[in-house]
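Q: For a teaching handout, I want to show students what a protein-ligand complex looks like in token form. Below are the inputs, and the small molecule is 5'-deoxyadenosine. Please produce the holo structure.
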Amino acid sequence: EVSEIINYFLKYFTLDYEKILWILRLENENKKEEIYKVADIVTRTLTTDFITLKGIIEFTNYCNKSCNYCGIRVQNNCIKRYRIPEEEILKIAKNGVDMGLTTIILQGGEDEYFSDETLERIIYKIHHEYKTSVSLSIGERSKEAYKRFKEAGASKVLLKHETINKKIFNEIHPDKDYEYRIELLDYLVYLGYITGSGNIIGLPGQTEKDIADDIIFMRDHRIKMIGMGPFISTHNTPLEGYPDGSADLTLNAYAATRLTIPYALMPATTALGTLKRDYQFKALRSGCNVIMVNITPDKYRKNYNIYDEKIKVEFYETAERILEEGLKLSPYTYRRILEAKRNGYSYER
Ligand code: 5AD
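A: Here is the structure, written as tokens, with 5'-deoxyadenosine included.
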């Protein structure tokens, strides 16, 4: 029952496997609302009372990996590949900072064209010249590379474990090593990165138990940022035709995660917004405290199809909606939005 969950949380500041599973399986609308409310209160009291906007730049859709769910996997030759030139990446980042973003996420496929040296230069500039946090979402690179990126000024890394169920992990990742993924995550934590991980919800063969295991795994490995998105069946991939993940289960997972890892930074994901637009905002009242806005120029972004019909989470539109819903923005972001509004949104959009 909800009251048992609350009492357990107040005593231990986390949940156990059984309680996580109970929340994941909740279907009763009233009980769900109660749990979401508790997760929301915990978010606001133990993290921040505002939603953090982070800007994502999808700088390359080249990828040399074959993940079975992903639309930019190397075998997919139906998409147009692009790489954003270094100078342009910097310009986009600078513009994002001027608009009011405090974290820039560099995301891309696993693309060796961008050497460690190039990435170091980009990171250094965004962190030291634009005075902004840099988060990396570039898949697997060598430990040495991640060490250098840290020294160059990156403070965060997102490296989703995707699923902790080894059998499913191996089925959907023909060319990835389960043990290495976990070892690398642990190494990132050891290096002092604010380390992010996460899973896909609704993979073929996955159960609520697997998702409970994912949450416990992230807690036990000191993961501080948690990205959990529903599976979205995607054209020209081996998982094309499998059913999409459940948006309701995703919300339950957010609430359960908030009560298990109370201090986490947890985005309301674009994948959830793609399945059900309103759920992305409902998530911001159910345990999530971050939203990633896309600042990739449209001519590139339209080809970054990691899954079908990926929506564009736009900066101003998202900020406005957050305020309309009675939620808050961080002081810097809010100030910049007000200024932009006064000037008739004259920034590049
Ligand atoms: N459905 C849901 N999430 C996906 N990702 C990639 N493809 C899909 C898909 N079809 C997610 C993975 C990856 C992140 C960049 O996007 O979790 O880590």
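A: Two things your students might notice: The beta strands are 52-60, 103-108, 133-137, 154-158, 194-197, 200-201, 225-226, 229-230, 290-294. Residues 69-70, 160, 162, 200, 229, 231-232, 234, 271, 306-307 surround 5'-deoxyadenosine (CB under 6 Å).
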